[in-house]
Amino acid sequence: MPSSLTENSPGRKLPAAVRWGALVWMAVWVPAYWLAWGPANFLHLCDLAVILTCIGLWTSNRLLLASQAVSSIVVDYVWTLDAAWVVIAKKPLIGGTEYLLDKHVAAWIRSLSLFHVVLPLVLLWALWRTGYDRRGWLLQTAIALLAFIASRFTDPLKNVNYAFHDPFWHRQIGPAPVHLLVSVLAMAIVVYWPTHLALLRVYRRRIGNQRPSVA
Predict the structure, then answer these.
(1) How confident is residue 208, by pLDDT bands cut at 50, 70 and 90?
(2) Which residue of 7, 126, 133, 208 has the smallest Cβ count within 10 Å?
(3) For the whole prediction, is pTM greater than 0.70?
(4) Any alpha helices (H) in 90-192, and if so which ranges?
(5) Which conformational region is residue 205 in: left (phi greater than 0), alpha (psi within -120 to 50 degrees), or beta?
(6) % helix, strand, coil for the chain, step of 5
(7) Cα–Cα distance between 164 and 171 in angstroms, integer?
(8) Coil, strand, or helix at residue 207?
């Protein structure tokens, strides 16, 4: 990377307001979610995406941001669709957003889940500034694998990341290792790879495999 970066060149450090905003968000969101749902909740891929995105924003790390764009764009808007269905019909379309109706959790904490609506837009903007790293989908696949494995050590009733039974047929697909492998491959092939191809096209002039820029 050249040491001098122009206004339109990828790899620039993100604005200080965005970087500090990410830290403020973490300072509010992490304790709130921890108290409401416990530490195991942060194994959810969507919640890991928040943490890793905030780290990526703070460090202007395009590899980390690229991986979370691959992870979040499709999933977050599926969540948004399901959440809207829950609010309107009082039942989930796919599942995973039922907690929005849980009166035992403060409404302001539940409202923090609206990050699913905003996060993809933040990631798309950040990648326009830093550039898209084509290794992002590989990194995210590795992150998902580790998250799925770790999820098997949580309460089966919570079914974190659907590590115990899938969201459609509500059953485990074979022995645990097979179920986890199928889950990871499904995410990598059905969600991550098409998103990666779309991002390659959108950011075709702002792509690199260079060492991720760090603040």
Answers:
(1) low
(2) 7
(3) yes
(4) 107-111, 115-130, 136-151, 176-186
(5) alpha
(6) 65, 0, 30
(7) 8
(8) strand
